[in-house]
Write a structure and sequence with these properties.
Elements (H helix, E strand, L loop, with lengths): L6 H19 L17 H28 L10
Amino acid sequence: MADRFTKARIVRDLRERAETMRFVNEFTDRTGTSQLSTGGRTQHDKDLALSRAINYGKWQELQTLADMIENGQLGVSELG
């Protein structure tokens, strides 16, 4: 039987995914987007910087989603 879907499980899963992405990409919360630059000018360097930027955005969004779930903000209309 599959484990039950719970708020705590999804938050834990999102945070674990974010931590794995942080570790693999060596991101830190302290330096923001300045850590994305590779400093190089070759196409490979530009491609690497773009890849890091995409991964940085995904990392940030995983953290944001976990926070929103914990705070009861996900699925709540901001218009009403």
